[in-house]
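Suppose a classmate hands you a notebook page containing two proteins, each written out with its sequence and a corresponding row of structure tokens. How would you begin to make sense of it? This section walks through that situation. The first entry is reproduced here exactly as it would appear on such a page.
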Amino acid sequence: MNETNTSPTLIEDIFEDRCSPAVVAQGPFRSRAPHWREDGTCSYCGGMRPSLILQAIREGAEVCPTDKSYKIYVTLPDPNVGQEKISGYANFRPEGAGWIKVDAALCQKFLRDDLRMGSWVMIHPCPATRQVKCYLNHFSESQALEFVRLHEAGKIKLGYPGHFYRPLAFGRYKDAINQLLAELKAEGTNGKNGNQGTDDAR
């Protein structure tokens, strides 16, 4: 896993389903075992660690609803605000102004493996915020339950339209989530959101 941070919450971040070592071993990147990169993302799917996502949510970060049941997006401050980044990429020269042909100097400047000499890029400054994705297959059971608790308590700041388009798929934790929802209902503590969007643990 190439794990460097040993805090309990980070240890809970897991590699399952399409990011499990067994699945990755059968894919096109057989020599690259999935691991957490220094920026907190999975080396295989690019999703952010659930522990970091949950921390951001607790601190008030906005969760952006999507039509996918297996991932969420969260808006975070961009630590690279103002710095130049590649915002568009093409193997041919697209129509319109602002496209720059990739040369050796540009490759050295951005140090990206996917840049090819002769391709075209668009460059813009990083905005104040960025959207990061998080795939639910990286959640441990306790992290999935915490997400449900936060949602049921109305403590997740949801972007437009204010609810999830589809129920989130925490499939392998279905029994634990249903038990939690039953307990919250008995306690009368899940009235704000009424388990909308979190009770389908497919």
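The notebook's second entry, a different protein, reads as follows.
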Amino acid sequence: MTGVRSATAADYSAFLELNSQVHQIHAKNYPAYFKPAAHVSEAEFNRFISTPDVHILIGHENLKVWGYAFFEVWRQNETPFSHAVTSLYLRQIAVDASCRRGGHGRKLLESVIASAREQKIQKIELDCWAFNQDAISFFRRCGFALMKERLHLDIATT
């Protein structure tokens, strides 16, 4: 049976494998920024899943893990320029390469949205790297809209 549940310490190995798949896409496309390999320690993973405002949801079919969504609650205080805002920030979403384009990402995202609603959070935010057109297209199909653009200038090459 396909489902989505909160991560436990037993999900560490599956999380690492899926994280590696996604990280490789980023490292290949932006090697100046991303290390060739990422490693989240088991202690760090356990800290994530035990922190109240940090959540990792696991997508699974029976005992096979096919994906995860990693998100946290962001609270921004009021400033002279902006209102106080609470949003849910989607750090990462990963679906095993063998399961992509089968509705699994949408299932994870629906669970993230449900979590936001349960917490009475009105907005979900995320970042996508410009090279990751598959992710950008996926999120736009799911109703996400451009909020801001983040630009950079590499002064070493200008």
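A careful reader of the second entry would note: The domain at 2-157 is CATH 3.40.630.30 (Aminopeptidase).
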